[in-house]
Structures are given as structure tokens and as C-alpha cells.
Amino acid sequence: MNKLDNVFTKVMNTMLKIILSIIIIASICILFPILIDSNVGTIVFLLVIIISMLFGYKIINSNISYKQKIFSLILISIFIKILWILNADNTPNSDFKVMYECGKNFISGDLSCFKGIGYIGRFPHLTIHVLYMAAIQYLSPASNLLIMKIISLFLGTTVVLIVYLITLELFKSKEKALLSLLIASVFPPLITYTSVFCSENLAMPFYLLSIYLFLRGIESDKYKFRLFCLSSICLALGNLFRMVAIIVLIAYTLY
């Protein structure tokens, strides 16, 4: 059985390396035309990421304490996200604008978008996110967009920290955990999504926390049941906002 496990692990690792290599090469090929046609803001954003990576790597290899390294890398993550929020267009548009308006209609008593051929009636998986937007608008009619951005900033920073914890749990290496923290801090999608009013911002922390608790449960003997229960709860909460929990369950089964 152990031999079969080893073969399966090697095959999966090889497949993942091939897939990731294809993604990286394709991303680079797509990036060049974008850079050629890009404006000053995009170039500045890329420079900030590159400088942050170099500065973060210097922090990792510095002589400061381990906790100070973690704190410094998290500060880098927060700084880049705030910089992006302050300079990006932060008004809901496209589908997000429709969801925002549905939330506004909901608190005024208009439920038409939830029924029949209404937007949420046709896409019911967005219901929880619309209710979240409605709750923020109800609690803060004047500054609801600002509050949503602050929540996204907090959750985005939480995601970075959970990525660090998952890496530490998997590899038992503080150096690799710090590198993962740095990568997550400067990973463009985790930065740019901070200003987008999408359900992924709310779902991602729950999914990653579920994965972390699941890994802890695998290793634990005394608290295995509790950790698995907490992992299940986090998975269910994440699924409310973005219904892809079945993919995570398949991954748990394979693991």
C-alpha cells in the first residue's frame, strides 16, 4: 500500500509541475503584450511588487527575530493592498453593480430580483453575497463601500496569514513558510481582488482555514474530531459565498 501511495504521489507531483509550468509560460506570454500596451499605473504597480519582493526577501534573510519577520511581511502585504485600494477604481461595476443594486432594493423591501427571471432568481448562488451587501448598506448607508473595502483588506490579510500556516503545517519548515508568506503578500490576484466586490473575498478565508484545520486534524490524535468538525463548518461557510466546496472535498478524499 505504501508503494502505491508513493507512486500516486510522484505521479500527482509530476502532473502538477507540468500544469504549473504551462500556466507560468502562458502567463508570461500574456504579460508581455499587456506591458507593451500598459499605462503608467500598471508599470508602477509592477515595480512596487518587484521592490516589495526584494525587500521581503531581504527581511527573511535578516537577523531580526522570527516574529518580527512575520510581522514585517504582513505589513508589506497590508501596505500594497492599501496602495492598490487608494489608486484603483473601487466602484461596483458589471455583475457586482447589479448585486449591489439588488442589495439596495432588498433593504427597501423590493424582492423582485430574487424571484422568477430576476438576476438572483437566475443565479441563486449569489444570494448570500447580496444579503451581505444589503447588511452593510443597511448598517452604513453613507460609507458602505468603504466598509466593504476595509473588510476585504482584513480578509485579504487573513488569507496571507493562513497561507503561511498551511505551508508551515505541510512542510514543517519556517523558512518555506516565510517564503510562502512573501509570495502570498505580493501575489497580484490577492492584491487586486481587494478592490473588487466579489464573493471570493469572503469565501477564500473560510476555505483556506478549512484546509488548515483539516491538515491539523490529520496530524492530531487528541483533537482530531474537533478539528474535523471545525474544518467542516469553515468549509460550509465558504460554500455559502462560493459554491465550490465539492472540489475541496475531493481534494480531502485524495489526500
UniProtKB/TrEMBL annotation:
Which Gene Ontology terms cover its molecular function?
pentosyltransferase activity
Q: Subcellular localization, per the record?
A: Cell membrane
Per the UniProt record, which residue ranges are transmembrane? 12-34, 40-57, 69-86, 146-166, 178-196, 202-218, 225-252
The UniProt keywords, alphabetically, are:
Cell membrane, Glycosyltransferase, Membrane, Transferase, Transmembrane, Transmembrane helix
Ranges of residues in domain Glycosyltransferase RgtA/B/C/D-like: 145-255
The entry's cellular-component GO terms read: plasma membrane
Q: Topology with regard to the membrane?
A: Multi-pass membrane protein
Q: Which GO terms describe its biological process?
A: lipopolysaccharide biosynthetic process
> What PANTHER family does the database record attribute to this sequence?
MANNOSYLTRANSFERASE YKCB-RELATED (PTHR33908), MEMBRANE PROTEIN (PTHR33908:SF11)
What is the protein's given name?
Phospholipid carrier-dependent glycosyltransferase
Please tell me the species this chain comes from: Clostridium botulinum
